[in-house]
Amino acid sequence: MSLNPVPIDREPAAGAVLLTGIPGSGKSTVAEALAGRLVMSAHIEVDTLQQMIVSGGQWPSPAENAEADRQIFLRARNACLLADSFARASFIPVLDDVVVRRAHLDFYRATLAAVPLHVIILTPGPTVARQRNQAREKVLTTDWSPLDTAMRSELGRQGTWIDNAARTVEETVGAILSVTGLA
């Protein structure tokens, strides 16, 4: 008996979006709204991939931690594998992750190879991000605002920077759709 599987892949998606910024910049909220505006899309929240590690997982922290750094790249690789799969099946992947270092961004660009990658950096500023973090249901205890300076230094000429401090989620999504042409 011969099994004839249903074809999964077809015309690749027009691209993928990597939304980044410091914690509190609005990545997950904007990514979910952006994915909802696209006809065929998938939201890949990279923190969720980190949470899949049941034992031995180490989250990024301000302190030096080689294992946490390794796991940042592991979760990015897994996000890219998942994004490539969705993109090959015509779904536009919308990834959200904290990407502060150029090496991390270059890794995404090299690893997510199925479609063009649109890098969007949300920059509400450290004060607004801190306020958003404090207003979350899950309050972050670490002050991540110093990452803003590191991100601006390392990624200054990369991607499209959107100051979303005074923009609504819908306005931010509109700006992303305008610059990526994915609408």
Automatic annotation (TrEMBL):
<feature type="domain" description="AAA+ ATPase">
    <location>
        <begin position="13"/>
        <end position="140"/>
    </location>
</feature>
<dbReference type="InterPro" id="IPR027417">
    <property type="entry name" value="P-loop_NTPase"/>
</dbReference>
<protein>
    <submittedName>
        <fullName>AAA family ATPase</fullName>
    </submittedName>
</protein>
<dbReference type="InterPro" id="IPR003593">
    <property type="entry name" value="AAA+_ATPase"/>
</dbReference>
<dbReference type="Pfam" id="PF13671">
    <property type="entry name" value="AAA_33"/>
</dbReference>
